[in-house]
Design a protein that fits this description.
Number of strands: 10
CATH topology: Ribosomal Protein S5, domain 2
Catalytic activity: D-erythro-1-(imidazol-4-yl)glycerol 3-phosphate = 3-(imidazol-4-yl)-2-oxopropyl phosphate + H2O
CATH class: Alpha Beta
Number of helices: 4
Strand order of the largest sheet: 1-2-4-3
Helix content: 25-40%
CATH architecture: 2-Layer Sandwich
Strand content: 25-35%
Enzyme class: lyase
Distance between the termini: 20 Å
Keywords: Amino-acid biosynthesis, Cytoplasm, Histidine biosynthesis, Lyase
Largest sheet: 4 strands, mixed
Oligomer: single chain
Organism: Guopingia tenuis
Subcellular location: Cytoplasm
Radius of gyration: 16 Å
Length: about 190
């Protein structure tokens, strides 16, 4: 089992994440941001990873610190679960429709963090959730996990559908890229390290 655990405590948040990359999509989530709990369930369920997340954040200020730090903590836990990355597929691209929305997520578990984010929203919020926080989560996650991550909205108007499509596409891409391929001998890089 490839399991990673990481805790992060700052003056703004106190978060513990445990991830099992070889799970079945089970989850126990308490982020303090109900909409984002819904999105994290998508990550677990569609990525077939088990997630345990306990988070206390300064949501009385706003959700920014909580969402950004959730990305960082989840990324660190994933990096630990991947270990030396021997045998993984490494790359994945997913196109995912959610009603009128269509997004593409493409990633490389390269050890070289990068985020290309091309997602436009027509509303600033879905419910109480600020749509711009999706980018903060993805940046924190990609940089902590050491992933090159490209996210692009191809179509869509409904903010909820767009965010949900991004999270589901990310989940499916992570599941594909982290799979162990028996044909891959050692680290999937000509450099010998990721």
């Amino acid at each position: 089992m490839r399991i990673g655990e990481f805790s992060r405590k700052t003056g703004e948040t106190d978060i513990t994440v445990k991830i099992n990359l070889d799970g079945t999509g089970r989850y126990t989530l308490e982020s303090g941001v109900p909409f984002f709990d819904h999105m994290l369930t998508m990550l677990a369920k569609h990525g077939l990873m088990d997630l345990e997340i306990a988070c206390k954040g300064d949501t009385e200020v706003d959700d920014h610190h909580t969402i950004e730090d959730l990305g960082i903590t989840l990324g660190e836990a994933m990096k630990r679960a991947l270990g030396d990355k021997a045998g993984i597929c490494r790359y994945a691209t997913q196109f995912l429709p959610m009603d009128e929305a269509l997004v593409m997520v493409s990633l490389d578990i390269s050890g070289r963090p990068y985020l290309s984010y091309d997602v436009e929203f027509f509303t600033e919020r879905t419910g109480n959730f600020e749509a711009c926080l999706l980018e903060e989560f993805l940046r924190g996650f990609a940089f902590a996990a050491g992933i090159t991550l490209h996210v692009k909205k191809i179509d869509g108007r409904n903010t909820h559908h767009i965010i949900e499509a991004v999270m589901k596409a990310l989940a499916r891409a992570l599941d594909q890229a982290t799979q162990v391929d028996p044909r891959v001998q050692g680290i999937p890089s000509t450099k010998g390290a990721l």
